Amino acid sequence: MSSSLNDDQVTVVGDDSSDAESHTTEVIPGPPVPFVPAPIEEPPSMAMENLPYGPLYEVRRSRGKGVGMFATDDVVRGTRILAEKPLMRLGVNDIDPVGLFALGAYKAQLTPAERQKFLSLHCRAERPADRVMDRFLSEPYCSDPAGLDELSRVRRAFISNAFESDEGKMCGYVQARINHSCTPNASLSFNGRTGHITLHAIKDVPAGSEYLVSYVDHAELSTSERQNKFAR
Fold first, then answer.
1. How far apart are CA 27 and CA 41, in angstroms?
2. What is the pLDDT averaged over residues 18-38?
3. Do residues 46 and 61 lie in contact, with contact meaning Cβ atoms separated by under 8 Å?
4. pLDDT digits (tens, 9 = 90+) for 6-27
5. Rounded CA gap, 198 and 104, in Å?
6. How many CB atoms lie within 10 A of CB 122?
7. DSSP labels for 202-222?
8. Confidence (pTM)
9. 187: which residues sit within 8 A by CB, 6+ positions away?
10. What letter would DSSP give residue 176?
11. What is the CA angle 184-188-194, rounded to 5?
12. Do the Cβ atoms of 213 and 200 come closer than 8 Å?
């Protein structure tokens, strides 16, 4: 900020003598300047122009949920809304609750551009136990502290966003933006023949409505078990 004063903010008090020492300077405050808050800088992953969209959907802000996936037109029950290749995929035998195998898949399966897309996904907050676990799990893949931070985010992002099917666990760039509901209007599945994650409407979905899926099998889990699952 400049320390210079405007002409209308300074009054010289004293006689007309040219002796500089006989003059004093009095600063008279100018009119108050209204406070204008600086704009909030959002991470690139939240910039609207970077969010994905398709013929029947757009990803945009969802109240209380960050972002969500919304219908851009009226969609009738049974319509396929999305088909996308997963960014990362683990086989049935590679699924683990702490995301260890996700670190290897991240290193082996993703290009640099795909890694940037994956790192832009929502990631649950770090917990006290995460730092110890991250150092233990990441040791085979990285010893650099900056790299450990990256792999920590990978592990937590995969746990937060991955979709599980009979053929393994996977995470898609668009699929990860779909929010949960106990009364869903859409259903996720994995097509092993095409290798795509697919989303189908299980109800008629009006334009402007958010597509919602159930993250859990309600027939197999109690209310408390579902709550514990979401708390992870």
1. 36
2. 45
3. no
4. 444 433 334 444 444 444 445 4
5. 25
6. 15
7. SS-B-TTPBPEE-SS-TTT--
8. 0.68
9. 199, 200, 202, 213, 214
10. G
11. 160
12. no
